[in-house]
Amino acid sequence: MDNTTDSTWDSLPVKLNEGILQTLEELKFTHMTPVQSACIPLFMSNKDVAAEAVTGSGKTLAFVIPIIELLLKREEKLKKMQVGALVITPTRELALQISEVMEQFIHKFPQFTQILLIGGTNPIEDVEKFKDQGANIVIATPGRLEDMFRRKADGLDLASAVRSLDVLARYGIKVNVVLFYLPKQRRTGLFSATQTQELEKLVRAGLRNPVRITVKEKGVAATAIQKTPARLSNYYTICKSEDKFNNLVAFLRQHKHEKQLVFFSTCACVEYYGRALETLVKKVTVHCIHGKMKHKRNKIFADFRALKSGILVCTDVMARGIDIPDVNWVLQYDPPSSASAFVHRCGRTARIGNQGNALVFLLPMEETYVNFLSINQKCPLQKMPPIGDVVDVLPKVKAMSLADRAMFDRGMRAFVSYVQAYAKHECSLIFRIKDLDFASLARGFALLRLPKMPELRGKTFPDFTETTVDTETIRYKDKNREKQRRKMLQEKDKTPLPKKNFTKNKAWSKQKNKKERRKKMSAKRKHDEGSDVDDEDMNELLNDTRLLKKLKKGQISEEDFEKQITSTVINKA
Ligand SMILES: Nc1ncnc2c1ncn2[C@@H]1O[C@H](COP(=O)(O)OP(=O)(O)OP(=O)(O)O)[C@@H](O)[C@H]1O
C-alpha cells in the first residue's frame, strides 16, 4: 500500500532529466506523492516554496529532484568549489539519510559532487575534504555549517563558495545565523510536517513570496483534516509513574517480533532504561541512541535500519525526518516537550501509506493532554485496552543497581533529568511539576534512594522506602573504574575537606552547570564507547582525583576545589 497520486512523473509540465527518470524507475516509484506533484513544478519554475505535508509523505524527493534539475539547467557550469545547493537539516541522522537519497540520484551525474557537513567528526577533516574534492551540493546540520563558515583561517572560504547558491532547502529548523552568509538571489524551499511559530518566522525571514503548499490527510472517522498519517492507529494509555516501566516491559515482551522505537525525554533516561530493557526483554536486539553519543550514532542507526525486528530506545534525535523501514510501533514512554514533536515522533511509523501504530504513556494527571493534542495538533488518540500480563520487574532493576554502581548512577541521573525536563515542558498547564508524585516516580525509576535535588528539598516521602544498603558501598563492575573510585575515596579520607562533603552533599541537579567546564577539560583518554565506563564518567573521576591531589599539595584553595570539582552530567536530547 502506498500513498502516491494518480500522476506519473511524465505528467509534470517540464520533462525530468532521463537520468532522474531512470533512478525513479529503478526505485519503482511509478507515481508522485501529493507533495512531490505540488512542489517539483513550482521549484523548477523559480518559486520559493514553503511546504507542510504529513510525515512520511515523500518530502525528500520533493526537493532532491528539483535541486538536481536546477543544477543541470544552469547556464554556467559549476566549478569544483562552487556550491549550487545547500540542504540544512536538524539532525545528523537526517542529513545522512538525505545524502543517501541524493547519492542514489547524483551517481548518474558524475559532474556533481556532494559533501556532508555534520557534527561528530573532526571539522578539520571536513575542511580538507571540501578543499580536495570540492562540493556542489552541501548537506549539513546548522552547527557544523556555521562552524565551516567561520573557518577562513583553515583555508576554506565557504561564504564565497556559496555565492552561486541556486537552491536552499531547509527541513523544519529554527532561524539561525547561517542565513546571514547566504546570497539573497536564490530559491528557497522549506519542508516540514508541522507548522510552528518558529517556522513561520523562518518563512518570513528566508523566503521570497513563497508559494505555500499544505498537504494533509483526511481523518478516517469524519471529513476532519488530521496532521498524522491516515493509516496510523494512535493510542494512549494511563498508568501511574510506578507502573509505567512494568507496562512498557510487558508490552515489549508481547511484541518481540516487531520493530519498535521507544522515546524517552532525556539522554540519561535512555542510558538507564535502555540498559534495563536489554536485560529484561530477552532475545530481542535493543539499541540505544541519543544526542550525547558521539561516535557510535551512525552505526547504531544503520544497524537498526537493517533489522527486521528490535527495539530502538531513543530521545528526540530520532523524532524528525528519520525514515526507518517497517517500524510497527512508536512508543512514547514520556510525552515530548513540544506538541509538534509528538506528531514527528508518531510519524516514524505509518509512512508512505503503510499501516503503523503509536502509543503514548500518560500519568493520570496528564490525561487532558489527549484533548490538547486533538485540538492543538489535530491528532486524535484512542484509549488502548489495558496491557495484559504485567509483572513487577522493578526489583530486578534495583538488583542491577546494587550489582553495579554504574547502573545506580544512571538511575539517579535519569530521575533528576526527568524531573528537570518535566519542569521545562512547553505545555506547562498540563505537565505541572507540582502535581508530580515524587515517591511514585522514584519507585518507577527503581531508585535505591532519592537523590539530593532542589525540587525535593524540605519534603518528606513516607511512601518511598529507601534501601537498607549503604549506597556508598555499591561497587562499579568495571574494575578500573572501581579502582579509581577507591583511590579517590582514600584521598578524600586523607584530605581535610571543606565542610561540605563533595559528593554526598552536592545536589545532583545543581552539578549540571559544570558540564561545560568539564567538557573543556577535554577527554585525553580515548575509550571504547562500548565499555561500561563512558568517556565522560572516567574523565570525571580522573579529574576529581587530580583536583584532590592539587588540594592536598596546597596548589589550589578549598574554595577553588569546591568550584572546580567535576560533576554529573544530566543531559537532554
Ligand atoms: N513517489 C514515491 N513513490 C513511492 N515511495 C516514495 C515516493 N517518494 C518517496 N517515497 C518513499 O517514502 C518514504 C518517505 O519519504 P520521506 O522520508 O521523503 O518522507 P517525509 O515526508 O520527508 O517524512 P518526514 O516528515 O518524516 O521527514 C521513503 O522511504 C521514500 O523512499
TrEMBL record:
Catalytic reaction annotation: ATP + H2O = ADP + phosphate + H(+)
Keyword ATP-binding in record: yes
UniProtKB keywords: ATP-binding, Helicase, Hydrolase, Nucleotide-binding, RNA-binding
Feature: compositional bias, Basic residues: 501-525
Gene3D superfamilies in the record: P-loop containing nucleotide triphosphate hydrolases
Domain of life: Eukaryota
Residues of the Helicase C-terminal domain: 231-392
Any one Gene Ontology molecular-function term assigned to this protein's record: hydrolase activity
Stretches for region Disordered: 478-540
Boundaries of every Helicase ATP-binding domain copy: 40-213
EC numbers, comma separated: 3.6.4.13
InterPro entries referenced in this protein's UniProt entry, alphabetically: DEAD/DEAH_box_helicase_dom, Helicase_ATP-bd, Helicase_C-like, P-loop_NTPase, SPB4-like_CTE
SMART domains: DEXDc, DUF4217, HELICc
CDD domains associated with the record: DEADc_DDX55, SF2_C_DEAD
ATP-binding in keyword set: yes
Protein family (similarity comment): Belongs to the DEAD box helicase family. DDX55/SPB4 subfamily.
Written domain comment of the UniProt record: The Q motif is unique to and characteristic of the DEAD box family of RNA helicases and controls ATP binding and hydrolysis.
Quaternary structure note: Interacts with 28S rRNA. Interacts with double-stranded RNA substrates in vitro; the interaction stimulates ATPase activity.
PANTHER family: RNA HELICASE
Function description: RNA helicase.
Protein known as: ATP-dependent RNA helicase
Annotated organism of origin: Lates calcarifer
